[in-house]
Amino acid sequence: MRFISSYLCFFLVLVLGFFGSCKYDKRDEIYGSNQCDTTVIYYEDIRLQFEQDCFGCHLAGNGTGVEFYDHTSLKNYAEQRKSLLIGVTNHTLGSPMPKGGEKWSECRVNKLKAWINQGMKRR
Ligand code: HEC
Q1: CB of 94 shorter than 6 A to ligand 1
Q2: Which of 97, 55, 101, 95 is nearest to 74 (CA)?
Q3: pLDDT, greater one: 1 or 51
Q4: Is any atom of ligand 1 closer than 6 Å to the C-beta of 74?
Q5: Same domain, 40 and 89
Q6: How many CA atoms lie less than 13 Å away from 71 in the CB half-sphere?
Q7: 25 shares a domain with 47
Q8: Ligand 1 atom with least separation from CA of 56
Q9: Mind listing the pLDDT tens digit for each residue in 76-100?
Q10: 109 Cβ closer than 6 Å to some ligand 1 atom
């Protein structure tokens, strides 16, 4: 009996964790654009977006002349070419990025700006 209840408990934690994380992922959809402020969570607002849209083409030695693929390299690049990095994502400067892809929403660009202005923290 004790075995069963601890098993049940473990299962419940799994289920709750699963739904909890889904809800978290869909934050933008649930709360809409009023969540689009300058609060930045590195992993969610920066890392995942770059992983999805940029890192693939900008790995070291890719021949684009622009290399960033993790926190350190992205931070280094942003320190040197801040306006260009922002400009390519909102299509106001340089080559429009993601190359061949869809332009980032204003919200995403604002998060990137905020992250840079707030010192490019890794959290
Ligand atoms: C499909 C491949 C590809 C993807 C995806 C991509 N890039 Fe690029 N990127 C390139 C290439 C190739 C260049 C070299 C310039 C050119 O050919 O347009 C480049 C150049 C750049 C430059 C320099 C622009 C300039 O005018 O000198 C920056 C900054 C940049 N990319 C940032 C990004 C960011 C940020 C993302 C994600 C939002 C991204 N890239 C996604 C291929 C890509």
Answers
A1: yes
A2: 55
A3: 51
A4: no
A5: yes
A6: 11
A7: no
A8: 5
A9: 999 999 999 999 999 999 999 999 9
A10: no
